[in-house]
Amino acid sequence: MRIDSRSNLRTLVVSEKKNAAQRIAQLLGDGKVEHKKAGGVDLFLFSVNGDEMVSLGLRGHILKVDFPSEFSNWQEVEPIQLIDAKILKIPTQKNLVNELKRQAKKVDAIIIATDYDREGELIGSDAANEIRTVNPTATIKRAKFSALTKTEISDAFDNLDIISENLAQAGEARQDIDLIWGATLTRFLSLSSTRLGSQFLSVGRVQSPTLSLVVDRERERTVFVVETYWQLKGTFDGSGGRFEAGHKTERFTSKKEVDDMVKRLGKQGTVSQVKKSAKSTSPPSPFNTTSFLAAAAGIGVSPANAMRIAEGLYMRGLISYPRVDNTVYPPSLDLRGILERLRAAEEVGPLAAKINSQSKLVPTRGKKQATDHPPIHPTGAATTETVSGKDWKIYELVVRRFLATLAPKAKMESMRIDIDVSGEPFFVRGSRIVEQGWLEYYRYGRKKDDILPDLTEGQTVDVLETVVEEKQTLPPPRYSQGALIQKMEELGLGTKATRHNIIQNLYERSYMHSDPIVPTKLGIAVSDSLRKHAPAISSPDMTAELESNIDNIVSGRITREKVVEKSRCLLSEVMESLVANKEAVGSEIRGGIAEGKTVGQCPECDAELRIIRAKKSKKRFVGCSGYPDCSRSYPLPQFGDVMPLGTVCEHCGSPNIKVITKGKRPWELCLDPDCSTKEEYRKKRKATKATKATKTTKAAKTTKAAKTTKTTGPAEK
């Protein structure tokens, strides 16, 4: 590694996080690393070819954007004034910036080793600008890599580049726009609805159209008209065993029609056709961020949690950089080298060896190709001793997807059997896997074989039973978190690095709950009010256009200043409409808030039961709106979000609620603490209290005995 022609250089390596700084030092210093602290900041000292090096990790962005202090008072400053307010860059952690500058003064060169994307480039550029204020002559270079492995890091530091100011400017444009839009709209809605302090209403340029997607889907479900239909199925017995087949008319709209048909059916049928066909299914394309998060959601890991885990695995050198659009492996990616390393991985090691034994590796290709990073793939071997729980689930998912993209097609045989029963056509489909191909490696969502008996055309089969099933049409399904991530990408909402956070924010602001996702009354009120009075902000088109403009900064087709100014103009138009309807907006949202606090109907007087917070104790409970004429009330858990379910308990008749606490499984229960459904819970709680009391008594006796021994011991000697 050589930054320039000088020897005995002192070099500062700046990473985005402490863990990355430590790993880079270990990889480049061959494990010979000295760890010290200065100014409360971790430093990792090592040497390369005689050059002294210091690796320092930041904590993400070292500078944040904000408005001048004169704009901080929500009551005195009109939200619309924020649109054209000056934007300042303020240090987020002064001690870290000060230590960065102190270390920069001592060196000859700086290597920026932050993540190679918009945000990482902005962090690196901000760090470089701070460094230049104290060491303007220092050489500043950029290391670009996609994995924290020995090979990747060594190659990046042997081929240093320069900071991409266009990429950094794109990141800064995103920061500025999000501040302007988020602060302006959040203040306006919060003030209009008198939701201040910790109860403020968060609004943003990406958050709002994403919430609208969820609300729109819920409205589709609400207005959906359920239709009843009937299906006719029969159980048949042929030489190969029993099987079920359905009538060719998959939906009968008349019960009488199907009942009359059943009366005409005989006890035997004839196989009118047996059709077999072979087909093959191609392996999946490599993971980009969106497809990875959707797949993770499919195995029970939320997008926000999956990204957190993926970042941890990346820091440990086990998978590649997880924020990518690319779905095509570059020719430079050493596929066989990765497979060789994976041989040591638990469970999947033999599978990697099997793929590597193929004479030729032909990976699948997705629709998106980019040059910044390769698709997400494994970079190191792990075992369940070093990686466990959900971390292992995510690691295994990435490994199996990588193996599947290199595996051959799966071959299947499908079969259709048609049967004539008294002139009425029945049929059944089946399939079986002939060659597993990629399905051997990627087991997620795999369907079981549905093998049919071996029948021939003209063969007679017995009709053992016929069944008429009543069914109803179903409304469109709610979005799962994985499906919402994919829809956001399709519409250009957010970026690969932000979509999971947008969804998490909507949960945390109590705009929606559960998975599949259900909007709350508050979420519906906010979405509906914005759509009514400022439809542009609820539409994905404007946000997608802004994202496209930000991307154009990277290619140099437009400047950051022009993009930010254009966004200010768009927001001015939005705010003009909102301000003109301020009272209506406030009233609509307050109505949604009130509706969200209503959990059901009082079983004693039919008035509304509402969530109330006591003025003195600040504790919440459910009380009747008919108070003081009706004093019916119920206790509530004091932690988590309470969501009315709109149903009543079949045992006690009190309303059902769902309690959602971060990090815990949602809990559904009725309001009545004396309901028989809580008997088991009361027994467990009583047993737990008794156990604790016993342990406390034993501990007290042990302590007392120990004190007695200590006191009397010397006197007895």
Question: Could you characterize the architecture of this molecule?
Answer:
The strands form six sheets. The protein has a six-stranded mixed beta sheet, with helices on both faces. The protein is globular. It folds into six domains: 10-163, 3-Layer(aba) Sandwich (Rossmann fold); 172-219 and 518-590, Topoisomerase I, domain 2 (Orthogonal Bundle); 228-283 and 410-472, Topoisomerase I, domain 3; 289-406, Topoisomerase I, domain 4 (Orthogonal Bundle); 602-674, no CATH class; 678-717. β19 and β20 (633-635) form a beta hairpin. α5 packs antiparallel against α17. The chain is built from 20 helices and 23 strands. The chain is of the alpha+beta class.
Q: Biggest sheet, strands in spatial order? A: 2-3-4-1-7-8
- Estimate the global geometry from the Cα principal axes: globular
Number of domains: 6
The number of helical runs is 20
- The termini sit apart by 74 Å
SS elements, strand count: 23
Q: Would you give the CATH topology of the largest domain?
A: Rossmann fold
Estimate the mean pLDDT confidence.
92
Quickly name the level 1 CATH class of the largest domain: Alpha Beta
Supply the helix-strand structural class.
alpha+beta
Summarize this, please?
With 717 residues, the protein is an alpha+beta fold. The chain is 40% helix and 21% strand.
